[in-house]
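Narrative of activities, Objective 1.

The group set out to show that a structural description can be obtained from nothing but a protein's sequence at a throughput compatible with the screening campaign. Below is one input-output pair from the validation batch, recorded exactly as produced.
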Amino acid sequence: VTDVNSTNLAYVLYTSGSTGKPKGVMIEHHSVINKLEWMQSQHPLNYKDTIMLKTPVTFDVSVWELFWWMFNGASVAILPPGGEKDPKTIIEEVESKSVTTIVFVPSMFAPFVSYVKANNLTNRLSSLKWIIQIGEALNPLLVRDFNMLLTPEFNPLMVNTYGPTEATVAVSWYDCPKEIDIEKIYIGKPIFNTRLLVLNQKNKIQPVGIPGELIITGANLSRGYLNRPELNSEKFIEFEYLDGRKLIGYKTGDIVKWTAEGNIDFIGRDDSQVKIRGYRIELGDIESKLLDFPKIKAVAVVVNQSNPDNKNIVGYVVLKKAGISNIKEIRQYLASRLPEYMIPSHLMILEELPLNTSGKINRKALPEPVFLSNEKFVAPANSYEKRLKRVWENVLGLKDVSVTNNFFDIGGNSLLAISMVSEIKEQLDIYMDPIHVLEYSSIRRLAQYLSDKDRVMEVKREVLAENTETRKQGFSRLQKRRSKLS
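Output recorded for this entry:
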């Protein structure tokens, strides 16, 4: 016997706050159950299914992975810590545990697809039935690239889902088409016991085809923010439905419109909130941390979207006195106060921020991000370094990268490391792990590692052994060999 009921609190999950103060979102039991029961009705798991647990528990998508399987007699495969950033580890787990269901953030799925394509590994993913996307807008080009890999033996359904933390993981879904020629991916239709409404600035319902703000109401709605009454009254509003009833809905800040087919078309955000690698981030949160640095006078933080598959954060800084600080010092300061995914990929020091006629920062007039380094430029010394330099510049979107620059100091991250590995495989026909980008983080060090042809051939032989019937034994030998070679 228990006193717990459906309206009791299930968990509190914190999201980024625009003033530097995180917001605790309170989710009740019935909201979680509604989400899981809908998912089971739409894509039913049974005792033959296995879902992969690879999402950090600080991210609400983990609720799917933690609980969905146990209610329905399925199994869970727990990915090793950090494995979510390594396509090779994911593929090994999918194959060895016969994983049928996996959840991805689109920005992490893109390098995964590139890795699978570059290494022709779809045969090792044949157990997959469902690939669920959430956390960011899903690019039709990414879906097209994925669909080009489909075969009769590898033909999972990709499901695009949408939902903020304030509405319990996800409130809509869209089964992605499997054609090659795709123009649009929608966030789809609402799950059951949930209403999705498009309102104008006067909180009146918009007709089909007319953009407005997406409002969520129904069973998935959270209790609100913990100890934040002012914010609750701002974000959880009362409005009048078509039949005259008063409803409470969450203002998502997302601009959308209904299509004639009954799908919701995501257009964009109406504020400074963004999603990077699936994490919802208030840019003001990063700005407040930069302003805490005693040598900084003014800041502006924006998202560079020149590459839709790799959006990155750019910070512009004005110092109180010229020359009293450098990029490395500021980055180290942020690293001690922000999680890795919130640290800008590029930091630029400006003499002043551009302003508009009203005295506000003119973000459109901010210069394109350019990597600035205190290091002296060192040119490539051999063919390996020249070829790697071209790959680095292509992946990072930079020019004139020095062979001594550290990959992670010039805008690199774990996802770009995966893209780097795929590009090296395609351009240089050399197999390597993403971990090697971390271990050999400059072009010079990586070139020295790769130029050891005997070492490369041994790794290749071990990789080939993984595709034989004795793959497991081959993988064990590979691990031992790599530890000796490190």
